[in-house]
User: Fold trans-cinnamate 4-monooxygenase from Ceratopteris richardii.
Amino acid sequence: MECCMLRSFPSFFATISLETVLFAILAVILLEIAISHVFKPKLRLPPGPLALPIFGNWLQVGDDLNHENLSQLAKKFGEIFLLRMGQRNLVIVSSPELAKGVLHTQGVEFGSRTRNVVFDIFTGKGQDMVFTVYGDHWRKMRRIMTVPFFTNKVVQQNRVYWEQEIDLARQDLKSRPAAATTGVVICQRSQMLMYNNMYRMMFNRRFERDDDPLFKVKEERLNLFNKYFMEEHKKLIKQKPPCNEEKCALDHMLDAQKNGEITEENILYIVENINVAAIETTLWTIEWGLAELVNNLDIQKKVREEMNTVLGKGVPITEPDVSRLPYLHAVLKETMRLHMPIPLLVPHMNLLQSKLAGYDIPAESSLLKSIQSFLQPAHFIF
Ligand code: HEM
Assistant:
């Protein structure tokens, strides 16, 4: 009997015509629309292009969601609009007020991050600080990270090292004769400058030369942090425990591990977060700033004049001097406005249904901040 039933399946499918299949698909689509209209609560969603059932706006916008395409859509639909990418809702905000809402005023509601397979690989499934959903882990990670990274005390404690690193980079460049004639590519050297700034903060370590084998294998970072920085550091502090003033970020994280608040994996992924968040962003900003000064000689001249007047000719700049150099400060801010390293910032997510600008934002929507459209004009404004 069972055998007879199995044999009858293929013949049953063979008799279904293409029209019947198409009709069935259409019926499912219409049914989905009907169900969504009758049973789903009426939400006041942000405006956006008409979404097709199942596909949403995928066929219209594709997966090329770069900030220029999104700015064009913002011109049509306004400073908040909704794209449906298949089943996922993507809310794009493009005004300073709404970006502030997502990042700050309603920061807790929109404080989670979307996750996907790629993020899971790079964060050990959310063991890091950045790509986590709002909750105990989210709060704990931010609390632990504030002391070693995000206070003014950290700036004061580390400024001497930053000043030293800048001076060493300057001396290195000066020692290359081409620097005064044909010019040199400073990319690799400025990368080492940034790595040294951050690795001093994190591990109390620096690279002597840019052909240091450890510097070269920075791509294999996670293994490297563990083997060469974490284990070595643990040995060092066992011999001589640091006092509070001597503690680097890793010491603070190891304290949190000792208290049972985080695991060794958490530490490795936090270090990875900081590498990505701190080094490349700052490095690109430095390179853009230098490129703008090379291409705008009148601005370069004014920066030099200000430094010579305020600090004295040839006197190296220190961190507290920055507040006495308003023109230099403005050039830095203009560079960051014009060359934002992450133009859509990092997507946020709301765990629960929320309100933004009077619209309903369905739970687990991705929120992108398209800031490029309000960072106009696209040139230095002095
Ligand atoms: C010019 C330099 C920098 C730029 C342009 C920059 C930009 C950004 C942006 C756009 C975000 C995402 C904001 C969001 O949408 O949630 C972010 C997050 C972050 N940045 Fe930076 N950043 C810079 C330097 C740094 C430095 C030096 C550090 C560390 C010392 C750092 C650590 C972080 C961390 C940990 C996050 C994640 C915050 C969170 O998830 O709560 N950044 N940064």
In short: Residues 1-39 form one domain.
